[in-house]
Design brief:
eight-stranded mixed sheet
Amino acid sequence: MSEIKKVAVIGSGVMGAQIAAHIANSGTEVILFDVVPKTPGRRSQLAESAIEKLLKMDPAPLTHKKKAALIKPANLEDDLDLLRSVDWIIEAIIEKIEIKQALYKKIEIFRTKGSIISSNTSTLPLHSLTNGMSDKFKRDFLITHFFNPPRYMRLLELVAGPETRKEAQETIRDFADIRLGKGVVECKDTPGFIANRIGCFWLTAGLVEAIKQGVSVEEADAVMGKPVGIPKTGVFGLMDLIGIDLLPLIAKSFADTLPETDEFRKIYREPEVVKKMIAEGFTGRKGKGGFYRINKESGKKIKEAIDLKTGQYRVAESPRLESVEAAKKGLRALVTSPDKGGKYAWSVLSQVLSYTASLVPEISDSIHDVDKAIKLGYNWKYGPFELIDKLGTEWFAAELEKEGRPVPELLKKAGNKPFYAKKDGKVLYLSAIPAKTDYQEIKFRSDAWSLADIKGKSKPVAKNPSAALWDVGDGILCLEFTSKMNSIDPLILEMVVKAAEIVKENHRGLIIGNDAENFSVGANLGFILFASNIAAWKMIEGVIKQGQDSYMALKYAPFPVVSAPSGMALGGGCEILLHSDAVQAHIELYSGLVEVGVGVVPGWGGCKEMLLRSLEKRRQSDKITAKLGGMFSIISPLKTLNTMPAIVEAFEKISMAKVSKSAEEARDMLILNGKSRITMNRSRLLADAKQLCLELAKDYRAPEPQKLSLPGKTGRYALHMAVDSFVKTGKATPHDEVVSKAAAKVLTGGNTDITREMTEQDVLNVERETFMELIKNPATLARVEYMLENGKPLRN
């Protein structure tokens, strides 16, 4: 199999530039091409401008600004020779076959033999794109459909033609999987492939039925969101995000390519309200607003929603529907609820699910691939066939028959059997191919697995209501948090200690991770607020001490500990990472010590560890400086260093509650140490963490306890001056001042001075004492309560 070392992206529009950015995120060189502008100026100006925009976009398409250096601008007149140096050429230009084919003929002249070419098209079939092209071109050509935005959307649809080389398919599939972190789904060459064929039908049905049934946009999104396992954007919020003006273009593309009998063509129409919105520039978030908008005319931000009948905006409401409440009992309870929400849910879901079932095996031979495409491309929690299982295959078919609607052949084949089944610890899915056996196995992969795979065939080594310990093989255990949002409570801390004891007895190492969206949002604030309200100060201090002891047990365990975070790892979650031997982080890691936002300082060793890491960074920097200066003597230990630069660095991170926007940034913030690694593909995270743990287990030695000499009051004075200046300029609130000065006290060692040597436990004691002082402050309790109620910090 050939290796992808350098890539070219042709087309520096929004999509092309972001594809180039994500390839750079993988550490791969990219050449970004575009045409020479008609106006005088730099000939590669379009590509250069696109790279500059990447650095300013939010959310950021680059995982770190330094990645932009891997993208080289070029133009299609002067620089085509550069194509000879690349292994993969991605075309991302306008969706017109004649323009694409003219480009392909240019590419053919300059590309290296065997280099792979792909189109990022989402609407044009492969057979049309390659029509009239050479056999050599067809062998190297694919469709690689990235979803927008490429960094954050995990789906990549891969379409090969009958002449495409198998090696080309495998090369791109493996590169996209391992290096780009994509969930690759191989699709048939049919209109819209898989995700958009179904997703656009769902959006269309959601829009048309809401208008027909008199359901408001807020009601539609309340029903077609969380109750179904769909992101809270629902139907209308998602259309605002995509761009309302794109919907008619997609519909026209489908109308041009789908047969007249296709259900999409039967249900689609462009409602008058949508025509009016597009004409007036209300095209969604990129325009003046969409189905929702923020009205700032009164000086306040007021969320408004459009009335689908009148086309006029009104204040958005939070609907209360019995069907939404009923959904807690299950999906069938939602769609059978007699209120307008239940009727809307049934009308939309019944159409979407029956349409999906009718498309298999036309669009794919595997219902599992169809579900995977929708889950990765549209962020649904469950795929269409998983949703049918929740309704019941037999029940769903009977309801369709009752209404005189056709029952898809695949649903008839299922009969009273589910689409997914479990047998002997294996997960099976119903085959859509007549010649195949009824069920096929979803193969377990040793290089890409989830805890769900482990749970399906084993029992936990230990378990309590907030955590579980699993044997993942080869002498490695995995500690999983199971509390709400994986918030850390006393039961988790108990399991941390228990896990350490069990691993110590007869295992090689421990990984800490889970399948959830977020590693951990931090300490359980509800517990802290409850205990504070009854003045159970000893209970709170006991939990802080318990957390400190638990995390120290991890740090100094006689075996390696590797944390495997993805998503948020905040506060106490971040402190676990800091006490691990190494972190195997998913690239999308949002981590930091955010405790000041709720009016306290990190209390489970976060201050101590950030200080130690900053001091070590300083020590290494001084060592390099000494060598460059010709001084090769051994650098003095930590205690004789000028500790203030390191203290200031740690203070800035903690007092400003800095949070990384990627694992790359977490490395800069010292949350990831030198042994840590980054995984691009979320599905590979736990397997990679286990492999790293096994590597560290060879000849493992626990770290030596460290000692520090901190400046005490003299150092604290300098930090106080910085805080005072922020207060005077209005950048810090009165309680920010209190909390920041408390953090300064911890980081400078409390009542110590530079001549006294402190142990890690001494610093932990100062952390705990300071935490307890703050938690008794009414302003802190107001912050905790506000955070629990509103999900954001109180600026008091």
